[in-house]
Amino acid sequence: MSKFFNQVKKNIGTQGGYSFLLFGIASILIVILLLGFSNRHSSLVKKPNVVILFADDMGYGDIQSLNPLSRIKTPAIDGLVKSGISFENAHASASVCTPSRYGLLTGRYAFRTPEAAGGIGGFTPSVIEKERLTLASILKDAGYTTAITGKWHLGLNWATKDQKVAQINASTGYSNVDYSLPVKSGPNDFGFDYSFIHPASLDIPPYVFLENGQVVDPNIILTTDIYPTRKENTEFSWDKKHSDERAVYWEKGVWWRLGEMSASFRVEDCLETIVEQAEKFIGIQSAEQPFLLYMPLTGPHTPWLPSNESKGKSGAGLYGDFVMDIDQVVARISSKLEAEGLLDNTLIIFSSDNGAYWPAEEILLHGHDSNKGSRGQKGDVWNGGHRVPLIISWPSGIKKSNTYKGLVSLTDIYATLVSLTGKRIPPGEGIDSKDFGPVLAGDMSFTTRENMVHHSSGGMFAIREGDWKYIDGLGSGGFTYPFKINPEENGPEGQLYQLNQDPLETTNLFEAFPEKIIRMKEKLEALKRAR
Q1: What is residue 116's DSSP assignment?
Q2: Rounded CA separation 135/349 (Å)
Q3: What residue ranges are annotated as transmembrane (predicted)?
Q4: What is the rounded CA–CA span in Å between residue 342 and residue 50?
Q5: Which CATH superfamily is domain 49-221+265-353+388-448 in?
Q6: 508 Rama sector, left if φ>0, alpha if ψ -120 to 50, beta otherwise
Q7: CA dihedral defined by 203, 209, 212, 217, rounded to 10 degrees?
Q8: Range 335-344, long-range pairs (CB < 8 A, 24+ positions)
């Protein structure tokens, strides 16, 4: 800068000096403006803390600010909407638990890893490849402290008493697992500095907590040692999958499978324990070092066990009451961040792993549409299976509330967060992830992606391109009957919907646009082959 001023002084008074003086003054002003922009920009790009609140089986329509007809009060989540960006067209990469979680943490469609493509049990080995770089791995390399408190459901390599693969004896409920020994290929092996997890869904054994790979209470009993399998006047026939007489079945939505359980574990207290551990983690963080806290919650997935404070308070039964508890989790985490002086530079992401498990009869019973105007439910290839709420709040980074209508996949969170930290995604990683950072900066016209692959619980595929959706089969592909329909002779072999005119996917245009079918099917197959 001093050389620049010397040159200005030297040229004043010489021929053309006046012009140079004007040029010099303009240049100085530009430098000042650039320095000011640089300072403002540096404050914006300071690595934010990241908290991912990942609900389990919660629908887009449960949130009042996204669905004014919701029968459930969600003031804390509504607060995130009012202060941040809500994504109107966000989708999980799959319509069921495990593959959706795999996609979030790896930025990859789970069907690329067959072991991760469907639902798994609590004793299934890890479905994440040994050398795979997760979101936690990359953020840890970027200087973040990383933690998970909640539901893992991506498999664990358990130590066993007989050195065989871990498995449960369906007739007795016992397994061959040695709970005194640490597990392998858990969160701590995939980038998390700290982990406090339940292995799978809260209706799947084993019912234990693991802290940094070690079972917290290895004193093991059976669920039947604590919980009666039935309550008086229980009707058992509501769902054919609840056919195990030794499973706990108290009422609709309140059930869990027979299996091993830590003597101190209580199913009804699981969510509270997860939140307490998260609050402890936040309480020891410093504003000088960024952190990632991934909170995959156990609700409102079954069993629907709302707290006494929420029970009977919603207009959507026990499920709706449990959603109110999820809203309270958001309130508590936000309050803890604020109390520790961390809220301003914390990017909070709220979403769900798939659509709600909320069939048509529940809509009629409660007058509540959990999947808000989408056909189908969890597991299905239709939008009700994979359209999810996605809300991002960041007080120091997002200055204006807005709604983004573009197409977004939960796999895109991977690339977006990596970009925010200033890191690059290594070759071969996050191949199905697109950076929507410009949206967070306020550009609602930005196009994140041109297409997206959907994957149902039953293995049916679909591709979305703009307003068009092609499904490579007939039926729901998931939990809604009929699951799969065999094509009639000379009839349609798949489904094609124009979603801007037919959001409920009721008018199959398969036979009306043969050329579009061919092109979209070819594109789907090409995306499935990509590596």
Answers
A1: G
A2: 14
A3: 20-37
A4: 10
A5: Alkaline Phosphatase, subunit A (3.40.720.10)
A6: beta
A7: -150
A8: 336/278, 336/279, 336/282, 336/283, 337/49, 337/51, 337/282, 340/282, 340/283, 340/285, 341/287, 342/49, 342/282, 342/285, 342/287, 343/395, 344/395, 344/396
For the domain spanning 453-529, the CATH number is 3.30.1120.10
Q: What pLDDT is attached to residue 11?
A: 42
Query: Given the DSSP bridges, would you call strands 49-55 and 291-296 parallel, antiparallel or unpaired?
Result: parallel
Q: Give residues with Cβ within 8 angstroms of 230, minimum separation 6.
A: 236, 249, 250
Q: Where would I find the beta strands (DSSP E) of 100-236?
A: 145-151, 194-198, 210-211, 214-215, 220-222
pLDDT for residue 239: 52
Please give the Cα distance from 35 to 30 (Å, whole number): 9
Mapping DSSP to helix (H, G, I), strand (E, B) and coil, where does residue 188 land?
helix
Tokens coding 302: 């079954």
Treating both helix axes as pointing N-terminal to C-terminal, what angle do 75-83 and 317-339 enclose, rounded to 10 degrees?
A: 50
The residue with tokens 């994440």 is 128
10-residue mean pLDDT profile of the chain (531 residues): values are 38 43 43 37 67 99 98 98 98 97 98 90 97 98 98 98 95 96 98 99 98 99 94 56 74 92 98 99 96 99 97 97 99 99 98 95 93 96 98 96 98 98 95 98 96 96 98 97 94 97 98 98 95 71
What is the model's pLDDT at position 3? 38
Task: Confirm if 416 and 435 have CB atoms less than 8 A apart.
Answer: yes
Going from N- to C-terminal start, the domains of the chain cover 2-38, 49-221+265-353+388-448, 453-529
**Model pTM score:** 0.90
Mode of pairing for the β-strands spanning 468-471 and 210-211? unpaired
Identify whether the C-beta of residue 374 lies closer than 8 Å to the C-beta of residue 60: yes
pLDDT the model gives residue 242: 53
Token pair for residue 497? 């919907």
Nearest to 214, CA basis, from 235, 241, 196: 196
Q: How far apart are CA 466 and CA 446, in angstroms?
A: 14
